Amino acid sequence: MSSRTTAPEDAYTAAPFVPEGAGLAALREAAADCRGCPLHENATQTVFGAGNAHARVMLVGEQPGDQEDRQGKPFVGPAGKLLDRALEEAGLDPADAYVTNAVKHFKFTRAEPRKRRIHKAPSLREMTACGPWLAAELALVEPELIVVLGATAGKALLGSSFRVGEVRGTVLEREIHGRPERLVPTVHPSSVLRAQDDEDRKAAYQGLVADLKVAARALG
User: Are 153 and 64 contacting, i.e. CB atoms less than 8 angstroms apart?
Assistant: First the structure.
């Protein structure tokens, strides 16, 4: 399998690693050995989706962060904690959701060896390569609604022309991986944490909550 890691970029795909007819537990186990693109080489581990297997809402982010990569679980870092708080404020129970990422390995850069690992956005090709895992999760969970967290997740699900600012807080209806889906795009919670000052952060957080309230209403 190691030869796959040196495949040309246009040949990146997770498809050969996704077992047919597998449940979520078996998918998670198989994803641990995914070599569909080179991102696995530097990441600590695959970070697969987690949560309610029968969730009405699926939250899709970009990729694992530093804490997620270390712990092997999605949305366990500062952005995940902020997201849980925003969901509760919007009337959505985080325990009832399924959370995952468009890309299952942490992509990062370092300014110097042993220095902090700095998040680096995955390429469109890396997102596409990881698409079979997300397709399998969607087919098993069958959510009534997908909350799209940020531009990268939006591009992975809706194509490279996606712009989160143009459609955030609206209910979209699209075919995703062969299934008709309803989606509510919003910003990634990490963008709230990156706000310059307390006032900007508060406004960004309230915007996230407002978008999640649209999702809550869409679920009825």
Answer: no
Q: Which helix (H) or strand (E) holds 176?
A: strand 172-176
How many Cα atoms are found within 13 Å in the side-chain-facing hemisphere of 35?
A: 9
Q: How many CB atoms lie within 10 A of CB 212?
A: 24
pLDDT tens-digit profile of 34-58?
999 999 999 999 999 999 999 999 9
Cβ(170)–Cβ(215) below 8 Å: no
Question: Which of 122, 128, 127, 133 shows the shortest CA–CA distance to 58?
Answer: 133
Q: Are 1 and 117 in contact (CB under 8 A)?
A: no
Amino acid identity, residue 20? Answer: E
Residues written for the chain: 220
Which residue's structure tokens are 């795009």? Answer: 185
Mind listing the pLDDT tens digit for each residue in 150-209?
999 999 999 999 999 999 999 999 999 999 999 999 999 999 999 999 999 999 999 999
pLDDT in tens, 104-114: 999 999 877 77
